[in-house]
Structure formats: C-alpha cells, structure tokens
Amino acid sequence: NIGENKSFLNYKDKYIDLIQLDHIILYLLIQKYCLKKEDKNLNILEIGAGFGNLARMIVNEYNAKYFIIDLPEILILQAYYLTQFFPNKRICFPEDLPNLCLEEEHVKKYDIFLLPPSIKIQTNLKLNCAINSSSFMEMRKKDIQEYFKIIEKNLSNGGFFFNNNRYFKDTSGEKIRLYEYPYDKKCKVIYSNQFLFFYRLHTLITKKIDVETNEIEQEL
Fold first, then answer.
1. Considering 68, 89, 184, 205, which has the largest number of Cβ atoms within 10 A of its Cβ?
2. pTM higher than 0.70, yes or no?
C-alpha cells in the first residue's frame, strides 16, 4: 500500500484503490472496443499517462509498442514504474533522441517510448489506438488542438481514438468543453456514454474511416 492510502479494498491479499479500479474499467473498455487479443504488433499512443498504470496493463497483455507523451516531471514517475514491471523492455527516454526527434529508426529499436510535449515526430507512428483519459480537460485549447493533429496524422485507417474526459472544466484558465473538441469528420462513433458513476465524465470512442460524415458532429 504505497502512500498508506486509507481508502482501499483488500482482495485476496492485494490492495485495490479507486485509481486501480478506474484504470481497470478503462482497460476493459479499451479491450472490448479498441483492441483484440489476437492483434499483433500494435502501436498505441497515450497522451497523459499518469504514473503509467494503464500502460502497464496494456503492455502486459498485448504485443505492442507503447508511446507516451507527458510532462517531464511525470515521465520520471513513469520511467521508474514501468522499468520495475518491464526490466527486459527497451525503453526510449528523451535523452535517447537527438534534438528530441523521433524517427523510424527509433521506433524499430525500442518498445516503450517516454516522450515530452516538445517531441518532434518525424515518422508516421501508424497507430492502432490513441488514448487520452482525464488530461485534455486540464489543457488549454491550443494544446488540445495540437494533440488532435498528432492523433489524426498518426492514427491508421481503422484505428481507434479513446477519449475519456469531462464535459466541462475551466481550471486551465479557459472554458474547456468536450463538445468543442476539434474532431476530424473522418471518424465513426463506436461508443459514447457517461463514464460509470462519474456524472461529469464522458467516454467517447471513435474509429478512423476514409470518408467524411456528420456523425461525430451530431454526437458532440
């Protein structure tokens, strides 16, 4: 019980707290709608990965290259956490990338990528799935727009975008509304619902397609 958290369940001698339960539900939704057990050589991007818990669950179960973009302070936590679980995985740290440029040679060389927001992606990541949970709502609009551009540019046709964020939040200094997120019209809504009992959170899963529709606009 790291941190001596007083709000937990003890199940079969394992500590389970609200964060773990939250990540388990996110994982099960991703597993049901975005990833298949038989899928091989997946490329997955998570923007804002916390301490790396959801990443651990996915990497543990799937043959995937896992890209994380996060603040440098948080990358330190992820580096510690993920190296403890995956000592044999090849982890790419920012200092492994000259001029913070991620190129195809690096994608081939490493398994897990810990990348700062200033990263310059010089290759198509050919993503099968992009994930953001509860961090877009903490950003300013221009940052959200930049990340949407990264997702749209690197998400493969038929790839999934898993978005779990608040309907509204203004702690970033701007009014961030879910229905104003800059989605591309080339996407199909796969799942859209309130996230469990969190009445302020919504889970929206879309699939990239090769034709424009008004489906996402209507759903938003």
1. 68
2. yes
